[in-house]
Design a protein that fits this description.
By secondary structure, the chain is α/β, with parallel strands linked by helices. It is built from four helices and seven strands, in the order αβαβαββαβββ. Helices cover 24% and strands 26% of the residues. The radius of gyration is 15 Å and the shape is globular.
Length: 186
Amino acid sequence: MRIVGGTHRGRILLSPKDNTVRPTSNKVRGAIFNILLNGKVRFNFNRAYVLDLFAGTGAFGCEALSRGAEFCTFVENAQASRMLVQKNIANLNFKNMTRVLTYDATQLGSFVQTTKSNIIFIDAPYSNRFSTLALVGAMKGGWLANHALIVIEDKSGESIVLPTGVKGIDYRIYGKTQVIIARYTN
């Protein structure tokens, strides 16, 4: 795995040796960021605050930081994955721009945050229906800025219910993966 764009393009991201984590492929991650930057939303990562739920390796958050985001909060409950996130952050010199929380992303609540996120990445374990729970928790906890973008990656065919206050913008399928891009409208 590598960073696919921005100032750290081509830099290696550490990934697990086993299949306990399903990292998003470079191809799909690149496609998602291309849609965000050049599609309907034309999101500007400069000075953005990012929330990376079910961080896994931290690839989404690190990609956003490479593209100019100001800060990223990574939320990961599994110790082995959290260690990968921390190693990737250190290898890319992103320590001063990040925070890693040991927390259940489906029950985020109003944990201490200083700034609301402009964009949130939700890459939950496939077929566990965690994506909607995590999104609702982030909304109720006050983690999202008004008009924040939401990127959900899940198994193709999985039913993802967007809660009231979230409007779908784009939907794509990449093999066994579906990607939903939405906007928080509250």
